[in-house]
Amino acid sequence: MKLFHLSDLHLGKRLNEFSLIDDQRYILKEILTQVNKEKPDGILIAGDVYDRSVPSEDAMKLWDEFLVSLCEKKIEVFAISGNHDSAIRFSDHGQLVDSAGIHLSPVYDGKAKHYTLSDKKVSVNIYMLPFIKPAVIRSIFPDEKIDDYTDACRVAIEHMNIKKDETNILIAHQFVTGAQRCESEEVTVGGLDNVDSSVFDDFDYVALGHIHGKQRIKRDEVRYCGTPLKYSFSEKDHKKSITVIDIDENKKISISEILLTPLHDLRQIKGTYLELTSKKNYENTATDDYIHAILTDEDDVIDAIGKLRVIYPNLMKLSYDNTRTQKSGQITDIQNVEKKTPIELFDEFYEKQNNTKMSNEQRKFAIECIESIWEV
User: Fold this and answer.
1) Which CATH architecture has domain 2-259?
2) pTM of the model
């Protein structure tokens, strides 16, 4: 049995005020081309289909066209909602399209949807767990001890009552401890949304969404497939792909990738204004790519963006890297931020603003507010 693992389509996304809808339409056609070539038995889509909870008309139309194309090819689709999706909007008409092989996760109510996909040699149980928060799971299972996201996922999985002697796949949309983030993802300070990978031990494969860079977590079978397109310049060196899962009659799982080529690449170029506008430096490159230009001139170039867009029409971002910016610039390290708890970060912020530390009473109040806001 062959399955495609996709996630984080983020349909309708804008990057630096550029609409990416044409790029997304192009990459979905590329995926459909690979569907025609590889003929998978099913497609797993691990959340964040849309970029916003109230998606644009173009985004909804594009998703509809993609599903119709897969339905026409008789490909089973298993898709869950992510943190960017509205779970109720995402699952609209879910029961109606279920019979057509399009399986959309409903709003989580304590029972995760699951299906059995079979061919002549292999049978696989596919469980669908949309993005969940501890507060939601506590309200459904008030007698369970749920302190954090790990507990929430553990309880949700325990109530699936999976048959461990069968082949089981989970589709989930969470931040699993150890995953490497990108700038285009929503960062939760202090690692509050971390889920320990041990909660997935009973599954033969875990199709994860939420993280934009493809990667394995602890074992090959717990995997983020990454986005099909680059959604920030921190992803400029990523190789985007479809993750392919092959399962044989002995339950052995083989994992491979099919590289995807975008309509426009996302690139960073660096040099002086004269270097970036010299024909010898750009004549053999795709000048219509999405570009972040870093100028190393010591003096600002008048109307640099307008001038550079004559050559690079899709210039998205302009920065300077020179003596002045190196002396005054302050770089925020996302990974260092993640290592600190929310109260540690607030402690630093309060002290910087007030030149004094919080009192014990103030700190207690801040902790109560943080716990209420983050619902853990």
Assistant:
1) 4-Layer Sandwich (3.60)
2) 0.84
